[in-house]
């Protein structure tokens, strides 16, 4: 089989409308088994090789129990770079955001070990010094994710809720955000992922994941996209300041985030 990471995936107007309404969408058959094997083995190898977490699982914080987290695998070159720079995912991201192009914010591998803990409820954009909501994360499981492995779950429609946007990933975010979502009646969509299924969620959509109760690791690759014309905003917390320095070095407040670490990955018509 020929691997073509740039092959387009058609996104329908109905899917765009659903994403706009719910703040997330799950798409079937984005990748086939051969493609996931081709890229997934190298992504998993790099994740394990670059991991610096040595504290036993039972002694870690709630955040560190959730997963091993390795950032910007694309900078390792090879298959990891090829995957992150692929136009298939980036084209989906641009279509869902209803914009002409996307650039990379950063990528990250999320490796939830057997017996790994929950990923507490949170919104990603708490961490990002960006000027608009035109951001989306592609969550790509490198294997099927049954319920006992801790699939990503979303509070549908929560992207408009401001309560909880000042909370980083923690026990407090899990308690407070979950309680608020339940009080306001936002349904949680929590279901297994088929092989090749990929989810996309907005930066302000609240989401969480269960513990990995299986005996296998849950290996996931994510790519975070932002509007090609996204501008840097002045950080409003220490995490945004750290993200500016780490993921957008050299970018200036009020200017388009156009740095060597933030290449344009897709432009409509290009």
Automatic annotation (TrEMBL):
> Which Gene3D superfamilies does this UniProt record tie to the protein?
q2cbj1_9rhob like domain
**Alphabetized Pfam families for the sequence:** PhyH
Listed GO MF terms? 2-oxoglutarate-dependent dioxygenase activity; iron ion binding
**Which keywords annotate this record?**
Dioxygenase, Oxidoreductase
Per the record's keyword annotation, is Nucleotide-binding included, yes or no?
Answer: no
Q: Is Transcription regulation a UniProt keyword of this protein?
A: no
- Which InterPro entries does this entry report, sorted A to Z? Phytyl_CoA_dOase-like
Known cofactor(s): Fe(2+)
Protein's name in the database: Phytanoyl-CoA dioxygenase
